[in-house]
Amino acid sequence: MNSGVFSRFRVLGEGLGVCAKYLLLYPLLAPRRTVHFLWMLGHQILSYNRSEAHAQIPSKTLEAIFPGIERVEVTLADASYRDGNMTTRELYTLCALARHLQTRSVLEIGTFDGLVITHLARNTDSEAHLVTVDLRPEDLQHLRWPLAPGEATYVKKPTIGEKIDQLPPGERSRIKQLYGDSTQLDFQSYYNQVDLVFIDGSHRYEYVEHDSQEAFRMRSPQGIIVWHDYLSWPDVTRYLNRLRHQYPIFHIEGTSFVVYQPET
Ligand SMILES: C[S@@+](CC[C@H](N)C(=O)[O-])C[C@H]1O[C@@H](n2cnc3c(N)ncnc32)[C@H](O)[C@@H]1O
Fold first, then answer.
1. Which residue has its alpha carbon closest to ligand 1 atom 11?
2. 224 vs 33, higher pLDDT
3. Is the distance from CB of 117 to CB of 161 less than 8 angstroms?
4. Which position among 62, 144, 157, 196 has the lowest Cβ density within 10 Å, counted as fewest Cβ atoms?
5. Distance from C-alpha of 231 to C-alpha of 120, rounded to nearest angstrom
6. What is the CA(182)–ligand 1 centre distance, in A?
C-alpha cells in the first residue's frame, strides 16, 4: 500500500475513533463535551462548504479571450459612482465587448440606476436593441425566494434606470425596460436572440442559477454571457465554480466578470 493511501486510512480510522468517543461515550460521562464537539463539527462543516466560494475558474486577460479587443475604442460618458455600480474598468470591459463583438442585442438583469445599459446603448450601433430588467420596490412582497442579505437596499430606489432618461432620444428609444422578479418574467420571446446577456440581479444562489439557465436559453448562437461579482458574492462564486464543470467559462483578469463564449 503506498504511503498516501495508508495515511488516508489512518486519518479515517482516527476520525471514527474520535466520533465514537464523543458521540457514544461522552453523552453518558461528559455530555457538555459532546455538545462542544457537535458545535465545533458544525463550524468545520460550514467552513468546508464556504471554501467552495474560492477562485476555481481559470483567469485570463480580456485580450487573451478576445484577441484584438485591446484596439477597440469605447465611449465612457458618466464619471459618477454610487454604491451598487460596477468599477470603471468593468464598465470599460463591457463596452469594449459590445463594440468588439458588434453586438446587436443585449439583455441585462439588474438595471439599478441604468449606468450599464446606457453605456451599452452608447457602444452599440443604431440598429441594436437593449432590454433591461429590474424589481420594483413593491415586488419585494412577491419574491420567489428571499434576496441575499443586504440586497434590498439596491431595490429600494425612487427610480429604476434614472440615467436612461438622460440619454439622447435615439439611444433612449432602443432601450426597453421590464419590471419584475427575473424568476417570474417570461423571457421566451428572447430565446436564441441575445448577443450579450449580462447577469447582475439578485446574488442569492437560486436567483443566479435561474438567471443563468435563462441566459443560456436566450443567447444567440454566437451570443456571450457575462456574470458580475465573481469572488465578491459567495453564492455567485459557488454557482459559477460549479458551472465551470459544464461550460468553458473564464474569469476576466482585473474584473469580477466571468464570461461564457461559445466555441466557434
Ligand atoms: C447591484 S445592482 C446592479 C448594478 C449595476 N449592474 C451597475 O453596476 O450599475 C442589482 C440590481 O438587481 C436588481 N434585482 C435584484 N433582484 C432581482 C430580481 N430577482 N429580479 C430583477 N432584478 C433584481 C436590484 O433591484 C438592483 O437594481
1. 110
2. 224
3. yes
4. 144
5. 24
6. 10
